[in-house]
Write a structure and sequence with these properties.
Helices cover about 65% and strands about 5% of the residues. A two-stranded antiparallel ribbon has the order 1-2.
Length: about 180
């Protein structure tokens, strides 16, 4: 496809889809940074621990809410553009999107389970979210905490790949794929 055969303005996803996408991206990046910085600062100074835990859990609940809204939006069709899957590149893109959804869903579940496995509620802006599960066995905290930690790194790496792919389309392919998600 030549530059002259590209449409003059790209087809955009709906504003709701774009808003949910960018809000998710910002929250995932924030959660990763706070989680990783928190992980290292907590080991060095106890003064930062309450602030970082409160920030991470509160914004984690916001991210979980946005994620649920995104899943419902996607399952009900939203007002999204349905691009056909034609090439291998389209299949890879669809697979990466599904992988991102699975990793993010897993990250949220692992985070809740890690917190609840300590016998404490998840605190969101000072409001407790108690576990709907019976008391978990001892030792499950390190299991869920480990899953939460390593899944965060995997999610971050796949999201980074996703972002770089977007910029690759913008600067190398120049096929206007990136512009679909811009305001």
């Amino acid at each position: 496809m030549t530059a002259s055969s590209l449409p003059s303005s790209p087809a955009h996803y709906s504003w709701e889809t774009r808003w949910l996408h960018w809000l998710t991206a910002v929250l995932v990046l924030e959660q990763f940074i706070v989680g990783q910085v928190g992980w290292h600062l907590m080991a060095r100074t106890a003064a930062w621990r309450p602030f970082l835990v409160a920030t991470h859990t509160s914004l984690g609940v916001v991210l979980a809410t946005v994620f649920i809204i995104r899943v419902v939006w996607a399952l009900t069709g939203g007002r999204a553009i349905r691009f056909p899957i034609v090439t291998m590149q389209d299949r890879v893109a669809r697979s990466v999107h599904r992988l991102l959804y699975m990793l993010l869903g897993g990250e949220i579940v692992f985070g809740y389970m890690a917190r609840w496995s300590t016998g404490r509620p998840v605190m969101a802006f000072g409001v407790p979210i108690n576990s709907p599960l019976p008391m978990l066995m001892r030792g499950t905290h390190s299991f869920f905490s480990g899953l939460h930690h390593w899944n965060a790194w995997l999610l971050f790496c796949v999201a980074l790949f996703h972002g770089f792919a977007g910029f690759y389309h913008l600067f190398v392919y120049r096929d206007r794929i990136f512009q679909r998600m811009l305001p």
